[in-house]
């Protein structure tokens, strides 16, 4: 049931993305020839006016096919005939809807919360490395580490793990003043764990704040911004070699991770909240990734739109859209090939486990 729920939620995110393109295209007067959920042969089709609505059999992706999107068309309502700013809004609408879906999911998860842990140091052990050499003090509100903002308290460990190293630059608010602590040691040391033993910890305690409505709204927004930043850091790690192909996941891997998250939850309510949180992150991940300036992605299409609009304004000559179609077609082939390789890698990983 968890796997079925994960697939349904994943389908909803795809539907929401394509719905964004569809709604803005319709509002802009652009003719939509087909609005389809998933890819491959159709298992359901219905013609309503000028638009064919379809559900296809391969549960990956979907599309909103507009007249004149990838070819020249004399139709006055073709995508290519619309003003450039309308085309920009249509292309950006999918990512916007995914981001909005992420906010809604995070609001469902965190809306009922009565309190939040905040990155404010309420207690720090005397032998903590963080307190040495004029380091952190009780009462410090940690704003950033190595220039990376702490949107939520969990960013403390995440940033230190990603950055690595023995010392880091901390930006804190102390007694109402913003100050920078340039070389704070982040060595973890042995501290009592409360069970008669010891554990490696940083030796500090963060505060808890009772949540007002404004706090909940801010926490939802900050979590969304944190998710955007996580995508950026992941890409940096991929290009720097800190992460590799084995760390990539496609739809199969994501569904498997969602199932694992649910199975490890103690109650059904906790499992549902964890799934919704995970899907919120995936929604924002899709929004950011789709806006990357790569062929076949909406971000690549927007870059081509801006470039061709500028060139046409200067030369007074219209560029044949078939050249852009070739570029995005090649990008789509490469993208689908990568997705297929990642899917087989995910399946192999699950079987081997």
- Distance separating the two termini: 20 Å
> Which outline best applies?
elongated
Instruction: Give the uncertain stretches in residue-range form.
Output: none
Q: Helix fraction?
A: 40-55%
Question: How many beta-strand elements?
Answer: 10
How large a portion of the residues is in β-strands, by DSSP E?
Answer: 15-25%
Please state the average pLDDT score.
88
Walk across the major sheet and give the strand order: 5-4-6-7
Succession of helices and strands: HEEHEEEHEEEEEHHHHH
Structural class: alpha+beta
- Per DSSP, the total helix count is 8
Major sheet attributes:
4 strands, antiparallel
CA-based gyration radius = 24 Å
Keywords:
353 residues, alpha+beta, two-stranded antiparallel sheet, elongated, 8 helices
Structure description:
The longest helix has 32 residues, at 321-352. The chain has eight helices and ten strands. Strands 5-4-6-7 form a four-stranded antiparallel β-sheet, with helices on one face. With 353 residues, the chain is α+β, with helices and mostly antiparallel strands.
Describe the structure concisely.
This protein has helices spanning 2-27, 84-110, 155-163, 213-240, 251-263, 268-290, 298-315, 321-352; strands spanning 32-48, 51-66, 115-124, 141-145, 148-149, 167-174, 177-185, 189-192, 198-201, 204-210.
Topology:
Elements: H1 2-27, E1 32-48, E2 51-66, H2 84-110, E3 115-124, E4 141-145, E5 148-149, H3 155-163, E6 167-174, E7 177-185, E8 189-192, E9 198-201, E10 204-210, H4 213-240, H5 251-263, H6 268-290, H7 298-315, H8 321-352
Antiparallel strand pairs: 1-2, 3-10, 4-5, 4-6, 6-7, 8-9
